[in-house]
Each structure stands twice: as structure tokens, then as C-alpha cells.
Automatic annotation (TrEMBL):
Signal peptide residue numbers: none
Lineage of origin: Bacteria, Bacillati, Actinomycetota, Actinomycetes, Kitasatosporales
Organism, scientific name: Streptomyces lanatus
UniProt xrefs under InterPro entries: Alkaline_phosphatase_core_sf, STM4013-like, Sulfatase_N
Single annotated GO MF: hydrolase activity
Entry protein name: STM4013/SEN3800 family hydrolase
SUPFAM superfamilies xref list: Alkaline phosphatase-like (SSF53649)
Domain of life: Bacteria
Keyword annotations of the record: Hydrolase
Pfam families, alphabetized: Sulfatase (PF00884)
Amino acid sequence: MNEVVGHHDILLVTLDTLRHDVAVELAAEGRIPNLARHLPGGRWEKRHAPGSFTYASHQAIFAGFLPTPAEPGPHPRLFAASFAGSETTADGTFVYDTPEFVSGLAQRDYRTVCIGGVGFFNQQGPLGTVLPGLFQEAHWEREFGVTSPHSFENQVARAEQVVAELPAEQRLFLFVNVSALHQPNWFHLPGATREAGDTRETHAAALEYIDRHIGRLFAAASSRRRCFAIVCSDHGTAYGDDGYTGHRLGHESVWTVPYAHFFLDPAKAPR
């Protein structure tokens, strides 16, 4: 990361509530081609979430605790606050003297921009301002939220606008919290109904919807210079697994998440 910071733009995308098993299945079946072409080896990495719901997980992620590889560690981190005794700070770790890496990047002359999705980013009350408040610039509209069938398209359009308005020399850290997978997601599957509700199948359909538009986001993020991208889930969610539904609970479907990081080359960015 010390070779990235200061030279590349950085994109962090959290696919809110995305289950690891669904992400892996869709990649293997060729149902998310725009994401899969960027995954190292065409596969998601299996990791453990740092929290079981959005607020807790994002607090940890912004503090440098991205989802942890699902195998014995220790595992060197990409970002870490400067503190004595850290066993996961390595030579390649970007170390900062602030509480989280958002302001750490701002100190390195990055423009930090949040495009929110779920309610913890809606800036509609004190709790909804905590996470967006870490950024120099934060965007949220109802059309970005969980109830909009077109939420991700709307978020991508705002990202394109943000990038277009930046001076060419200004480095960017862009964060997008994608709400489309979060309940309710039944409207992403043709033939599904509000009465039948959300299922693992509608969750998968929401990921396919995201994949249809994520190429535009990647293209915008890498339109000015090479971009380092992190795409992951913040936590999964249960659809009746062992009797559990939802998240903020300790089930495998919640704690196990897909993760990938990769570079986006402007010459290769899909248009």
C-alpha cells in the first residue's frame, strides 16, 4: 500500500450483506462476468467479516480491519493506525497517525468521498452521520437506499459526477456502500412478489443487477489514473439458515464474506 498511496486513486466498494456462498456460485456459473473478470483467478477470496452488521463492520473496516482471510494468521493488513505492538502491521502496510485511514488518506492529499447506501449512511439523524462524517464529502439520497430498485445505477451516476468534477491532479479515495443486496431485494428477481418476500434467489438476482452496472463504476474510478480497488462484503445475511433470518447474529452465513482487491488500469477499464 505504500507504493499505492500517493500515486493511485483508491476505490472501496462494500456490497452490503453479500453472502460468500452466493458470490462464489454466481462467479462459477458465469452470472457476474463484470466482477469475475477482475477477481484474481476469477475467484472470490473467502474471509471473515469484522462485524455482523453494517455499523460495526464499517467502523472496523475504516480503522484498517478489513475482512480477515479465513485461515490461520497473522495476516498483514493493507491499512493500520500507528500503535505499538500491532502484529498485523507489515512493511507494505500504509500506517497513519489518525483514528482511521479515511482521514489518514486525507492527510496525504486525497479527496475522500462517500456515496452511501443503507440507513447508517443516510445522514438523516445523529447515528446516520457518524460514518459519512469521516469523509470530506458525503452523498446520500433516498434513491440510493434499500427501497429503490434502481439504487446502484443511481449511486454509479453520482460517482461519475464526482469524478468528472475533480481536478485531474487531485487524488481520490472513493467509497461506495452498495445497498441493493440488502433487504428488501425481492424486486430484483422477475416474477418475485412483495408478499413472497426476500430469498436467497432474490439476493442472487440483486448481485446480478449490481454486476450489470459495476463496469461503469470501475471505469469512472480509473478514468484519471490507475486505481487500486477493494470489493468486499461487510457481512452476510441468513435466509432461514438453521432457522436464522437476517444478520447481527453469529451464523456462518453472516460471518463468512467474499473479498477481492485488484488494480484497475484506465486502458482496460470496461466502458
